[in-house]
Amino acid sequence: MNATSTITRQYGAAIALVPGLYSLISVTGGTGMMGSNSGLLMTILGIVVVIHGVVLLTPYASRLGNASRPLMIGYSLVMLLNQALIRTTGSVNWGMSGGMGPGTGGGMGSSMISGMGWDLGMVALAILMLISGVIMTSRRDTEAGM
């Protein structure tokens, strides 16, 4: 493994770990997403993205080969689609009625999400992941594992 591939893998790991961890923290950090469709999707995606980022820092990264780059694009598109659904439906349950009553996930976090329509931090991280995935995918020199 050469120095360029090591740096690229570290860069890719950082780009994966930050949105993955942000996704997990936003779901468990009192935003009212816990138990919602959006929250479940972001929990699963966050776990997968964090695992991907950690793998990029290990010798197992070479097993991913060039798949890591398009995977990052895919993750970012799922994150953006989820945020777009929240934005268009006004709910973390993608169109199911959201309210402030019992059992609806009401409270400050839920009203903040509905009021904003989406998590701008997640959107920014997903766009960063998308751009980096596109840049790395379009590069002509292919380093093993990233």
Helix content: 55-70%
Total DSSP E strands? 0
Number of helices: 6
Radius of gyration: 17 Å
Low-confidence stretches: 96-115
Summarize the helix and strand pattern as letters: HHHHHH
What is the averaged pLDDT score?
78
Q: How many strands, what sense, and barrel or not for the largest sheet?
A: none
Q: Which of globular, elongated, flat, extended, rod-shaped describes the shape?
A: elongated
**Beta fraction of the residues?**
under 5%
Category by helix and strand content: mainly alpha
Cα end-to-end separation: 11 Å
Brief rundown of the structure:
The chain is mainly α and 146 residues long. It contains 6 helices and no strands.
Write the topology of this structure:
Blueprint: H1 3-28, H2 37-56, H3 61-64, H4 68-89, H5 108-116, H6 120-138
Structure keywords:
single chain; 146 residues; mainly alpha; 6 helices; 0% strand
Written account of the structure:
- With 146 residues, the chain is an all-alpha fold.
- The chain is 68% helix and 0% strand.
- The chain contains six helices and no strands.
- The protein has helices spanning 3-28, 37-56, 61-64, 68-89, 108-116, 120-138.
- Helix 1 (3-28) packs antiparallel against helix 2, helix 1 (3-28) runs antiparallel to helix 6 and helix 4 packs antiparallel against helix 6.
- The protein starts with a helix and ends in an 8-residue tail after the last helix.
